[in-house]
Amino acid sequence: MIILGIETSCDETAAAVVTDAREIRADVVLSQIADHTPYGGVVPEVAARAHLEHLDGLIRRAMEDAGIGFADLDAVAATGGPGLIGGVIVGVMTAKAIAAARNLPFVAVNHLEGHALTARLTDDVAFPYLLLLVSGGHCQLLVVEGVGKYRRLGTTIDDAVGEAFDKTAKLIGLGYPGGPQVEKAAAAATNPDRFELPRPMVGRPGCDFSFSGLKAAVRRLVEDLPKPLSEADQADLAAAFQNTVAAVMADRVKRAIRAFKEAHPEGSTLVVAGGVAANKVLRARLDALAAKEGMRFVAPPLRLCTDNAAMIAWAGLERFRLGQSDGLDFAPRPRWPLDPTAKPAIGRPDVGSGVKA
Ligand code: KG4
Ligand code: ZN
């Protein structure tokens, strides 16, 4: 079985070809970072236009890289949401057009399910597993029970963690996107323990997260320092922020591991997914925690953590081989929660309901 996947829900235009033998035959990603940098963040209209301009060329390249023609495909998958709706429409319409022209099944994929199932593509992880999904729009702990079967243990009550990285980067004068820049600056810190930050939610019951207080604390520290910030100040602040996030994550994930083991004594894997999973300090911290708790730790390779189309092709394939596909009347969804039964988090109903930043 061989599937073409398309991803256009945020600021990466991507196309990939994946097989049911867990083989990535092609995987091309075009980042729009340069288009959005002047604005300090993603501009939806700019993103949609860029997807429209580049998507067909990227699909052509992916098909060439895979060495196949449309006639060789078994299905076409595209991100159907959640995300910036203009971009999602571009991807969905393109996939539908290929499906209609070639008489192929079309599979609409939940972008979050793409992240969630990546560990099955890369490491053949069996259900059930515990998933920490950390991206620009999300910070959730989920039990992955099967394809389309998710139970949310916790979510953020305010900012997503990637959002916190991006905002912190802005506060301390680092560029966009913030996560990689904060990580780079923190690695150069000479005095990483110089600043102390609050650790929101640590020790509290449940598995929810909160990051807005942390961001406010960084802002107060910045206010008291001479401007523009020196590189040393930037580095020490970045390290303080990153270490605090890692500590908060470890506390929340530890609680989730306990809850997961209670519900699923047969489960033994902790998976981290989403753009923030590219952070090496966070990965190391989770790796150590998993080892201590007797869990296997799986983190996909960096390029499969941030947005890509291989994960969309794979999630589409997982659904398709279970006999699932979508009609050409599928309507792109700006919101699409993985666990529709989960109650919205207090204070930030949009985050829990599957919206993407
Ligand atoms: O999954 P993703 O590529 O897009 C969304 O679906 O949101 O995640 C993007 C987020 C951004 O907030 C970015 O700053 C963050 O992931 N990110 C990182 C790192 N690389 C990307 N955060 C921390 N450390 C990193 N190395
Ligand atoms: Zn994503």
- Strand line-up of the largest beta sheet: 3-2-1-4-5
Note the gap between the termini: 33 Å
CA radius of gyration is 20 Å
Number of strands: 10
Beta-strand residue fraction: 15-25%
What form results from the Cα inertia axes? globular
Figure out the total of helices. 12
Q: How many structural domains does the protein architecture include?
A: 2
Helix content estimate: 40-55%
Structure commentary:
The strands form 2 sheets. A 5-stranded mixed beta sheet has the order 3-2-1-4-5, sandwiched between helices. It folds into 2 domains: about 1-115 and about 305-320, Nucleotidyltransferase, domain 5; about 125-300, 2-Layer Sandwich (Nucleotidyltransferase, domain 5), CATH 3.30.420.40. The longest helix is centred in the last third of the chain and has 33 residues, at about 230-265. The protein has helices spanning about 35, 45-65, 85-100, 110-125, 160-170, 180-185, 210-225, 230-265, 280-290, 300-305, 310-320, 350, and strands at about 1-5, 10-20, 25-30, 75-80, 105-110, 130-135, 140-145, 150-155, 270-275, 295-300. It is globular and about 60 Å long. It is built from 12 helices and 10 strands. The protein is of the alpha/beta class. Bound molecules: 5'-O-[(R)-(carboxyoxy)(hydroxy)phosphoryl]adenosine (KG4) and zinc ion (ZN). The site of zinc ion has 6 residues, from α4.
